[in-house]
Amino acid sequence: MLEHLNRALDHIEEHLDRPLAVDDLARIAMTSEYHFRRLFSALAGVPLSEYIRRRRLTVAGADVLAGRHTLLDIAVRYGYGSAEAFARAFRAVHGIGPGEARRTGAALQSQPRMSFRLIVEGSSSMRYRIVERDEFRVVGAKARLPLIHQGLNPSMVEFMRGIDQDTRRRLEELAAGSEQEPRGLVNVCDDLDPSRAEGTEFDYYHGAVLGPEDTRDTTGLDVLSVPAGTWAVFESSGRFPEALQFMWRDVFTQWFPSNPYASRPGPEILRVRPSEDGTDAEAELWIPVERTTAG
Asked: What is the mean pLDDT of residues 29-43?
């Protein structure tokens, strides 16, 4: 997997001054466009589109300082429709406009070329299982929230505090009466931006997992219908919320590159059992996956 990802990185370098199609990169990486975006973001710590933009403007910066071409020629070469658009993007990365950089010979920012390699530490194992699920529903309260990578998400905390007691009671009763996995109250992330960039928005549900045969009253609650499919289920325990966020990271940076599965579009489901003092938690994370041809 990492070998194919590095070939995709080579392709990016060869096409910094030409159009780049993400589906071409995914094909080189031998995976889906959806999984390629997700995996790249997790491994690189930056969205694919942002990495390409930074690399282009790093190389463009060298052309600006060299002074052999006009700023408009450089702008067009790297895919900008006007000198003004190029200047805005240039300033956003380098903190200075291209004209001023050329006049003063200013020091510019540089986005290094990336390559991926797997570091096997062997200090712990990741507990997981593969589950085939029939269709089911997530029933609960829903909000559109910004994505936060580390620490508590203030918008999520505010949303959870805003769920009224009657709704909480109904959700607890629905969860207690359901035989569907994962059992108990769950938190669900859906419709995430493929880049997983900080601040992008997603649908967040707090509720219960119900089967299609469950006829109990769900009036007034939000319902997410989930089709049948394959899921990878991961278990973790540790400091809350850091251990949960690290589990998400490790799934994409360690488990996917080492196993013949790729992520597929769909909700991600988390069940958390906090300790009495709320400082630690046990968690179960459900990620929708599909088996790849590898392995």
From this structure: 88
